[in-house]
From TrEMBL:
Origin species: marine sediment metagenome
Gene3D superfamilies xref list: MoaB/Mog-like domain
Domain MoaB/Mog as annotated: residue spans: 1-66
Record protein name field: MoaB/Mog domain-containing protein
InterPro entries cross-referenced by the UniProt entry: CinA (IPR050101), MoaB/Mog-like_dom_sf (IPR036425), MoaB/Mog_dom (IPR001453)
């Protein structure tokens, strides 16, 4: 699970999304292997997604990242 948000990293906003999603994922018998939080930066997001893909995941869940530059993805 990839959580994107400067506001989370500086403590301005609490990350409730990953908690909510993890509860539902495990409720249905699946497993969350990792939760990563990164800043709202296109290069960092791209780098992190590439690193995640190198691990050959079954699925990637992304939450956040609502800055204008990233909305074109």
């Amino acid at each position: 699970m990839l959580i994107i948000g400067n506001e989370i990293l500086i403590g301005k906003t609490q990350d409730t999304n990953s908690n909510w999603m993890a509860k539902r994922i495990t409720k249905y018998g699946h497993r969350v292997k990792r939760i990563i939080t990164i800043e709202d930066d296109l290069d960092e997001i791209s780098k992190t997604i590439r690193e995640i893909l190198d691990r050959d995941p079954d699925i990637i869940i992304v939450s956040g990242g609502l800055i204008k530059e990233i909305s074109i993805l």
